[in-house]
Amino acid sequence: MTRTLDIPTSTRPPRMPGIPYLTDNVNMLNDPLRYLVQGYRELGPVFRVCMGFTEYTVLAGLEANLFLQREAEQYLTSETLFGGMARQLNTDMLLTVLDGEPHRHMRKLMRPGFSRSAIGPHIDKVIGIVREYAESLKPGDEIAVFDSMRRLICNAIGLITTGIKPGDRYQDVLTFLSGAMNVEVVKVWPRVLLSRPSWKQAKANMFALGKEILELHRTDPPREGGRTPDMIDDLMAAVRPDGGPFTEDDLIAFAVGPYIAGIDTLSSTLAFFVYTIAKHPAVYARAKAEVDALFDAGMPDLNDFRKLEFLHAAAIETLRRYPATPFTPRTVKHPFTFAGYDFAVGTEVMFANGVTHLLDEYYPDPLTFDPERHLTGEAPPPGVFAPYTLGPHTCLGAGMAEGLMLITMAGLLRYTAFELPNPDYTVKIRTMPLPNPGQSFRVKVVNTPA
Ligand code: HEM
Predict the structure, then answer these.
(1) Whose CA is closest to atom 34 on ligand 1?
(2) Distance, CA 132 to ligand 1 centroid (Å)?
(3) pLDDT band at 2 (very low <50, low <70, confident <90, very high)
């Protein structure tokens, strides 16, 4: 079964120039989206880059995004990408490795638990997490933004999806996540790092957290006036795609899965959001006024956050300008032809879904951060805006992510005040394994309300 989009040629796609491996890895580690846009402009929609020791054929531009959206199920698999993570979790039920009907079955089961409305029953507590954090800050404090966002998000996601805030155990989750993502998924770290006692201990502690979550759900079932049902309750009451019961390992993987899917993606995005707000004082002032008007009318519920139109536009603009997942690795499972190049079974491909975000045919002056572009009522063609990637594996938590972006930023604007230590500071993107503003990105607290 071969698909042809253009006249096939037998030539191999061009490589990015420079020293093999070194130039690619340095650029992919620093600002992968800038490098992929450069490749698209200089070499066209298909070219080769290395990440770690793997060579990928990149497919970039709107046609590539649409191919991913429409054809992924038929021609591509993500088993190679996420299979190692599934093995670490002793399950074959990880959403990211499933395809076809079993994948649809599991997505349907998990959709309510990962939706925006799943925040609803916990809205006061989620605002409380941000408020408590903001009020712990003193004027003059410098905040390490990325780490702070990771801690906030870990607690918020844990609470919403499983009813438990991991608290200090968030460090174990992060240690597991960082090793498993860099070794098993993007494969840029050597496997020997997973033999370190500290990583094995973190993994054991994370599994213990998973067991504790299951125990809570078994001993304290949802009831009127008590615990509200969440995704774990939904999954415990459901069956595998083959009709059999989920194993205990499947359930533990579901209990810790939200951290794996949500922490790095959302905390990188939120850290960029803090940067874009702090970097643009006019945006800060307008967003702050909007948030104050909302909170002055009384403690908002989940739907009230929809009134934050400008803050929402700023969040969308952050996702456009600084997408935390600007590329999507896949493996070819059936041959196809794209833009004149043949793709054989087994080829490692990378869909550069973020490249369209920085093309001036879709977003004039694309490097400029401008929330206004999302308030005009005009949207770019479908497939251009793709911060959650496209196709059957598009982010299931996108609604929850955008809800948490708004709540967290609104809470920070309401309960504290911050600025860049130096107004001329320009973000330096780091990738580990996803692009983020780096550990060194800080903002200064300038005043906290009495
Ligand atoms: C701004 C924040 C986020 C971004 C940019 C993002 C991005 C993505 C991307 C690109 C994928 C596809 C990965 C692939 O197939 O290679 C994905 C999948 C997924 N995300 Fe997110 N994500 C975010 C937040 C979240 C949150 C907060 C959750 C839930 C707690 C979540 C849950 C999921 C799930 C369950 C999948 C698997 C979907 C599937 O394989 O069918 N995400 N996300």
Answers:
(1) 396
(2) 27
(3) very low
Closest by CA position to 16, among listed 49, 54, 51: 49
For residues 199-227, give the mean pLDDT.
94
| Span from the CA of 74 to the centroid of ligand 1 (angstroms) | 21
Task: Identify residue 25 by its one-letter amino acid code.
Answer: N
For the cut 80, the answer to whether the pLDDT of residue 418 exceeds it is: yes
- 76 ligand 1 Cβ < 6 A: no
Q: Is the CB of 387 under 6 A from ligand 1?
A: yes
CA dihedral 394, 412, 170, 387 (to 10 degrees): 20
Q: What pLDDT sits at residue 10?
A: 52
Give me the domain span that covers residue 389: 3-447
Q: Which CATH number does the domain housing residue 272 bear?
A: 1.10.630.10
- Distance (Å) of CA 207 to CA 173, 215, 256, 333: 9, 12, 8, 33
When divided into structural domains, the chain yields a total of: 1
The finding on whether 113 has its CB within 6 A of some atom of ligand 1 is: no
pLDDT in tens, 12-46: 999 999 998 899 999 999 999 999 999 999 999 99
Å from CA of 332 to ligand 1 middle: 21
**For residues 350 and 335, what is the distance between their CA atoms, to the nearest angstrom?**
15
Q: Is the CB of 396 under 6 A from ligand 1?
A: yes
* Whole-number average pLDDT of the chain: 94
User: Which residue puts its alpha carbon closest to atom 24 of ligand 1?
Assistant: 262
Closest C-alpha residue for ligand 1 atom 19: 395
pLDDT tens per residue across span 44-100: 999 999 998 899 999 999 999 999 999 999 999 999 999 999 999 999 999 999 999
Decide: 231 in ligand 1 pocket, CB within 6 A: no
Residues in Cβ contact with 392 at an 8 Å cutoff, skipping those fewer than 6 apart:
72, 73, 99, 103, 104
Q: 388 alpha carbon to ligand 1 midpoint, in Å?
A: 7
The DSSP result for 220-233, as a single string, is: S---TTSPPP-HHH
Is the shortest distance between the CB of 157 and ligand 1 below 6 Å? yes
pLDDT(6) > 60: no
Per the document, the length of the chain is 450
DSSP string for 306-375: GG-HHHHHHHHHHHHHS-S---EEEEESS-EEETTEEE-TT-EEEEETTGGGG-TTTSSSTTS--GGGGS
User: What atom of ligand 1 comes closest to residue 263's alpha carbon?
Assistant: 27
| Closest ligand 1 atom to 94 CA | 40
